Amino acid sequence: MAGLLLLCAAAVLLLLLAPGGAIPPPEDAARMARFVLHNCDWGALATLSAQEGLRGQPFANIFSLSDGPPGPSSGSGVPYLYLTDMEISVQDLEINSNASLTVSLAQTPYCKKHRYDPQNPLCAHIIFCGSIVKVNDSEAGLAKKALFSRHPEMESWPKDHNWFFAKFNITNIWVLDYFGGLKIVTPEEYYSIKP
């Protein structure tokens, strides 16, 4: 009976639509990771604080991000960010570029529509670990297109803040999208998925 209930829940999950199309099945963790990132416009970035009184402590902050323009097959899988050295978390990253980034379907209409609490595993979230690096000149155009297509106000942010494009260099990926615990996805598996 329990197996039948899980099978029915999985079938229902497959039929439900999220903002960017049908949500991937729970057994396809790499595709789910790409799907969630592409459907999220922001994430929680955790750094190790370099600030007086918090030095070495975890510090999380919200950042706008994009892996490409909206639409079902336009995501690169690379989380791009638009940063300034004036931002407190960026100051942390200047000391230690290691970070984690969490994105969740809770920010989309999907979880509310299905009455999933953000902590419910069916309200999928992805945890990336890695580091933040400035993009090189050859990648800056791609980062700009990805970010400004989703966050058009960024173009008018004060120029004297010395904004720069950066990316989250992914080394580890954990997916929580169903009951039974976290699934590990390698960066190679993640980037091999075609959206």
From TrEMBL:
The keyword Glycoprotein applies. It comes from the Eukaryota. Keywords: Glycoprotein, Secreted, Signal. It is found in: Secreted. The keyword Glycoprotein applies. It comes from Pelecanoides urinatrix (Common diving petrel). The gene is Creg1. Belongs to the CREG family. One of its GO terms (cellular component) is endomembrane system. It holds the Pfam family CREG_beta-barrel. This is CREG1 protein. Residues 24-192 form the CREG-like beta-barrel domain. Residues 1-22 form the signal peptide. InterPro entries: CREG, CREG_beta-barrel, Split_barrel_FMN-bd.
